[in-house]
Write a structure and sequence with these properties.
It holds the Pfam family PMI_typeI_hel. The chain is built from twelve helices and 26 strands. It has helices at about 35-45, 95-100, 110-115, 140-150, 180-190, 195, 200-210, 215-230, 235-250, 260-270, 275-280, 330-335; strands at about 15-20, 20-25, 30, 55, 55-60, 70, 90-95, 120-130, 135, 160-165, 170-175, 280-285, 290-295, 300-315, 320, 345, 350-355, 355-360, 365-375, 380, 390-395, 395-405, 405-415, 415-420, 425-430, 440-445. Strands 7-6-1-24-21-26-19-18-17 form a nine-stranded antiparallel beta sheet. Strands 2, 5, 8, 10, 11, 12, 13, 14 and 16 form a nine-stranded antiparallel beta sheet that branches. Helix 5 packs across helix 7, helix 7 packs antiparallel against helix 8 (about 215-230) and helix 8 (about 215-230) runs antiparallel to helix 12 (about 330-335). It is elongated and about 75 Å long. The relative contact order is 0.17.
Length: about 450
């Protein structure tokens, strides 16, 4: 049974330019130092305030930062198969979410069946100056419970798996360290023993030595992490003082480990915060541009520094317990975590088309294609069965859109974002725009995970 009513709009299917929302969280890079700020300034024609942090650019339909569609001036006109420049002055503007409700054909039949008339994913650009909170995102069951109990804090009932794809050197804490590394932490950071208790400390060491049952290991790790996170403010400050004092002295005689250096950085950013101690428990990951990290529900993490594009299920649910001035829900965080141990998987992308790599985490809501098209070359992207959004991060070019016998063309440039309806084939030509310093067109396209269309 077809859920989508056919209408004349399908014969005029085209990409639509978006106006996106910027978030000014205090951890963001400030002014023109921020990629988010620079992109937003290009998109909005607003001047940047050099003292304001520009942390996130949201591309999607979530109510906390919805995108608007800029409707072309000829959207209601009949037109022929001739190419039409859709960068014309918009004759109207409306929420992308409202436009999708009126034009569900743009989502594709399978997406409407599964998620209704809304985008199942949210795409972002992040510019991180200092560490984000120690946090995790709830699974669907917990998200519904938290939203019902505290809707002012947990604003929707959806889960939030996510993926960060580095566009600069990018640092993060992600998942619990292996049993062997946990053993080293217990042995090398004796100050933690007063919070853990000697019995818990001994069990954590024995897990690495005796290869205990995974469930036993989870119970011990949960007890240890909860003991740290639930300690009193005075206890945390006292232990942090001891650790920092020791590391500063030892720095005069030896090179500190990367994790120890990170702990000192976090202690400067968030003095006396329990999140500094939690860093000992989590994997420290450094991504190069083009590498990605994905996070399932109930996995602890914190982004530390750098810039990335990020994609996730459409949700803004975050359970925090450290490195933040926002609401902390320590009990919920410690209870919800999976307590899996080991290094997270880093994705390098799989080539799918010339100049294009695909990043497909094991989540049905989203995947991301990254394209770097040298000046003078072209890229052909087959039609997707579902919706997508396109971000022009660098360079400029010409985008030819084909749907059936209809064709449209628009010039694209750095800072542009577009909503791409299902069924549109894209042919994109990279050019320098007369600027000899421009050597490639950098595009990021987020859409529904293609695996769902093969089942």
């Amino acid at each position: 049974m077809t859920l989508i009513k056919q209408n004349a709009s399908e014969n005029r299917r085209r990409a639509l330019r978006l106006q996106c929302k910027v978030q000014n969280y205090d951890w963001g890079l400030k002014g023109s130092q921020s990629e988010v700020g620079r992109l937003y300034a290009l998109q909005s024609n607003e001047l940047l305030d050099e003292e304001t942090p520009y942390a996130e650019l949201w591309i999607g339909t979530h109510g906390s930062g919805p995108s608007y569609v800029l409707l072309p001036g000829d959207i209601n006109d009949d037109y022929s198969n001739n190419c039409t420049d859709v960068r014309a002055q918009p004759f109207g503007i409306m929420l992308l979410k409202d436009w999708l409700c009126k034009n569900p054909y743009a989502l594709g039949e399978k997406v409407v069946r599964r998620w209704g008339t809304d985008l199942p994913f949210l795409f972002k650009v992040l510019s991180v100056s200092k560490a984000l909170s120690i946090q995790a995102h709830p699974d669907k069951k917990l998200a519904k419970q938290l939203h019902q109990l505290q809707p002012n804090i947990y604003k929707d009932a959806n889960h939030k798996p996510e993926m960060a794809l580095a566009i600069s050197s990018f640092e993060a804490l992600c998942g619990f360290v292996s049993p062997q590394e946990m053993k080293c932490v217990i042995e090398d950071v004796p100050e933690l023993h007063s919070l853990l208790g000697e019995s818990v400390a001994k069990v954590l060491i024995s897990i690495a030595l005796c290869h205990l049952n995974k469930e036993v290991a989870k119970v011990a790790l949960r007890a240890a992490f909860t003991a740290i996170m639930a300690a009193s403010e005075d206890e945390i400050k006292a232990v942090l003082y001891q650790i920092i004092f020791r590391l500063l002295n030892e720095r005069q005689e030896r090179t500190l480990s990367k994790k120890e250096q990170l702990v000192l950085r976090l202690a400067e950013q968030y003095p006396g915060d329990v999140g500094v101690l939690s860093a000992f428990f989590l994997n420290y990951v450094r991504l190069s541009p083009g590498e990605a990290l994905y996070l399932d529900a109930n996995e602890p993490h914190a982004y530390i520094a750098g810039e990335c594009v990020e994609c996730m299920a459409t949700s803004d649910n975050v359970v925090r317990a450290g490195l933040t001035t926002k609401y902390r829900d320590t009990q919920t965080l410690c209870a919800m975590l999976s307590y899996k141990q080991g290094r997270p998987q880093v994705l390098s992308g799989v080539p799918v088309y010339p100049y294009t790599k695909r990043y497909s985490p094991p989540f049905e809501e989203f995947e991301v294609d990254a394209s770097i098209v040298p000046t003078g070359h072209s890229l052909s992207l087959p039609a997707n069965c579902g919706p997508s959004v396109l971000l022009v991060l660098e360079g400029c070019g010409t985008m030819y859109q084909v749907f059936g016998s209809n064709k449209h063309v628009t010039e694209v440039k750095r800072g542009d974002t577009y909503f791409i309806p299902a069924g549109i084939k894209l042919d994109i030509v990279s050019d320098s725009g007369g600027n000899p310093e421009v050597d490639a067109l950098h595009l990021y396209r987020a859409g529904v995970n293609s695996d769902i269309f093969s089942t």
